[in-house]
Amino acid sequence: MDKIKFYSLWACAILLGGCQKPNYLERNVKNQLMDFYATIDGKGQDRLFLSTISNDTVYLHVDYYYPIDSDNEVDLSRLMLRASVPADAQVTPGLNGFTDLTAPKKITVTAGNGDAKDYVVIAEKKGNTDISGIKITFKDSEQKENEIEGILNGNTVTFYVVPGMDLSQSTLSYVINKHSSGSIASGAQVNLANGAEVPLTISGAGNIKRQLKLVVKEPVKLDKGVGINRRLFLKKAADLGFTANSETSCFVSGDYLVIVSRTSPSVFKVYNRFTGAYSHNLANPFPAGRLIFQGVSDEKGRFMLGTYTPNGQSFVLYKYKDVFDTSPAKLLDLPYSKPAAVAAGDGNIGRKLNWVGDMDGNGQLLASVATSRYLLRWTVENGQIKSTAADVLEYKDGAASLGFLPEYLPLGVGANAELIASTNAELAYVSGSTWGRLAAFPAITGTAMNGGIAFQRFNNADILAQVKLFGSNEIGQMYVYDISDRARIGTTLSSPTYNQLRVYESELFTGGTNGNATSDICMGTSENGQRLQVYMLTTFGYLVAQEFTIYADSN
Q1: For 505-541, how does the pLDDT look when each residue is reduced to its tens digit (9 = 90+)?
Q2: For 201, what's the count of Cα atoms within 13 Å in the CB-facing half-sphere?
Q3: Which residue intervals define the domain DUF5018 in the entry (predicted)?
Q4: Which architecture characterizes domain 35-126 according to CATH?
Q5: Angle at alpha carbon of residue 313, lines to 425 and 304, rounded to 5°
Q6: Is this prediction's pTM over 0.90?
Q7: Domain spans of the chain?
Q8: Using an 8 Å Cβ cutoff, are 282 and 268 in contact?
Q9: CATH architecture of 131-217
Q10: Cis peptide before 199 (omega within 30 of 0)
Q11: CA distance 101 to 186
């Protein structure tokens, strides 16, 4: 009897289940190319050659040589193509293996519902016409040699020279790719007197030409803030040997830029910060197996590196005199226990560190506590940690969890100095006494995450730089703010005075997949404070250097 009941119930369940309507998935109707790039054999994960998509045509920008300063000509018949398409869509023919783009090639993107869109891919193989280090030298009335560096804006190179100088026999110098040539040789004389405009043509492989114009203007010195700016250099991740999501921070030390890689063991690469040329690796004194995410520096070239530290491990901190210091001093090596208030969260420290002050004098080191609104603060006096027991502080107006990468950057050395907080969802101006939000920077539409921040006093102004991430954190953009007038921080995007707060905004830079949202930004000055350099690191994407002057255009 029991068996009969069991089989009857089982049969009923099958019959009832068989009567349910099938749960069909709705097919995607989108068939647009979202991203398209190419690479070469041996560089399968690198975004070497980007594209411009215009209607149904994909223009692929291929370097004539790769690397650009090598003799390795790129073979258009052996390109490896990569595309991003909507979910449920397919590309035909498939992009596996090598593709011959010596002639235009048709590809089709078919949506999940069967709708198809055709594209034509055209490879534009061109040499490099970049120019850098462009200068003129001339003698003044006392026969002293003067050197002026040009500011490249678009295709115009402007030399800002005070009145009364004889520029009729100026010597022009510049740096271009070894496969390119200039219509005026580097080292030749040019006549820039009496407002003359001198044309300069840069010719590269693949019959590409760039027409430049050399002009002289009288500089107008600003009493305050940043003036004319230029792109100092731009390096792709592939050029610098970046690996996926490993480059986590950057900082300036003297004439050098240091990039921290959280590989095991961690690597600290040193570059000339005016050219982007690699110099050497720093000494690594940390215990085996410890990862380093972040370095911080002061304005005198000294810097600190600290360990990424989960709960229960020791936080280890070293101070370097400069990038050639092979015996850095250990400042901290103490067990870390996350604050009780974040017991349920990640609670690790070391992903983000911030510094203010003189590392051989007085200052503060701040470490954010991941997945919380807490942070730790160590006070430094006379170059030494005042107490190993850190202050535990709370950003009281922040969300309960501010993600894995919040930053807190003091604007002064004092214990109650105001701060800038950069968290997942906001960039905020915070009180150092109440730890409440004083004002919020205007939110930028589409921002996926607020990234690294840096602060610099420059030309009587307080300058703040930030990385903003878009998309799935693979797109980076540099923002520079003048926060001298703190009342401007709450300015809205539509306000006519917004541009007095946001003084620079770069183009978008798209890199590779960046699931960890790693990025950073740092600043430095040169020429006795006459120029400001801002460096943006977008992991697995770019290193972008932008330079600002204290001069405005005279027109």
Answers
A1: 999 998 877 878 889 999 999 989 999 999 999 876 8
A2: 6
A3: 9-334
A4: Sandwich (2.60)
A5: 65
A6: no
A7: 35-126, 131-217, 220-242+442-554
A8: yes
A9: Sandwich (2.60)
A10: no
A11: 36
